[in-house]
Amino acid sequence: MTQDWVESSKCDRRLFRDMLGSFMTGVTVVATRAADGSVRAFTANSFTSVSLDPPLVLVCLAKSSGSLDVFTQAEGFSVSVLGAGQRDVSNGFAARDPAVKAAALARLADGPVPYVENCLATMLCDRERVIDAGDHVILLGAVRQFQAAGGQPLGYFRGAYVGFGLAVGELEQLGAPLVVGGLLERDGKVVLCRRPGASDWELPSRPLASGERHGVVLRDLFARLGIAAEASLLYSLFQEDGERRTTMIFSVEADAEIAPKTLADGTRVESFGVEARPWEMIEGEMKRGMVQRFFREREAGCFGIYYDTAEGGRVAALDGKPRPWADWHPDFPVKPTATRIA
Ligand SMILES: Cc1cc2nc3c(=O)[nH]c(=O)nc-3n(C[C@H](O)[C@H](O)[C@H](O)COP(=O)(O)O)c2cc1C
Description:
The chain is an alpha+beta fold. It folds into two domains: 159 residues, Electron Transport, Fmn-binding Protein, Chain A (Pnp Oxidase, Chain A); 145 residues, Alpha-Beta Complex (Nucleoside Triphosphate Pyrophosphohydrolase). The chain contains eight helices and 19 strands. The strands form three sheets. Strands 11, 12, 13, 14, 15, 16, 17, 18 and 19 form a nine-stranded mixed beta sheet that branches. The longest helix has 16 residues. The relative contact order is 0.10. The structure holds flavin mononucleotide (FMN). The site of flavin mononucleotide (FMN) has 17 residues, from strand 3, strand 5 and helix 3.
């Protein structure tokens, strides 16, 4: 299909705007407080990330906006990224009807600058610069604080809101909230992996996508490392500081000696004993603590299960080795099936 070139200087503005609408965006709400204490906000899909270091973002505000002076003079503003269920919020802050807009403004959360609560992400910005740009101004903000949560985004495409259905479901699996891994041991040594080019070592682990069985994932993970092993016991359940994922680490005894090797993708696999202080070779305070605990407990001959709590975590001591379900509860047999592992 051939398409004609349109001269933007000669065409109707609406045609130009419609063309821009083919660039799909998310939807944000930009808010600030005026000198008299009143709150101002507008819906914006012109949000763009600009720089990581320093952290800068921008939004474009129409010069026709009744809040132009307030935004260009305010010390700072917030940008809240809306989720799929927040069309009403978007409509509220884009409304021309003063009553509708006032109702939306009244629901803003109070902070150093007002912001919309329960969004996918919120950034609190200092005004870095205001740049004149045609019939808009560019509000360049230096992000001082931000928060982010999971969820599906609200999209905007050709003048209409869009959802992402399955595609987002798949994306969310990439950002799976759970990671499973193994503290693989053989003869007093634990297995660590190092990806090509990385300086830190890691415990073998993998995100658990929704619907996947952790036992199967772990067995495949070990098999990929060329190690025959079955996870036996949950050893630690934690969330590293600043990490959104929860990590479940199982203790695992390998069936045979583990020889150092380099996998086809360049990952190095080695096992380390206590004298190598392997906990110092990995990243993450929780993981380091866990590996150190493992060696201490191994020496003492008494293991525990750790779970992360707001007060700093708890360890429940284990008395003896894990036993098959049928031995523990002979009266309630569980039928093993081919797919049921763990
Ligand atoms: C999805 C969507 C995106 C929008 N994006 C912008 C934008 O990036 N910049 C802008 O100035 N107005 C944008 N608007 C329009 C404003 O939200 C709207 O004109 C609002 O009423 C302006 O606030 P004001 O009444 O304080 O001027 C958008 C509206 C919608 C529905």
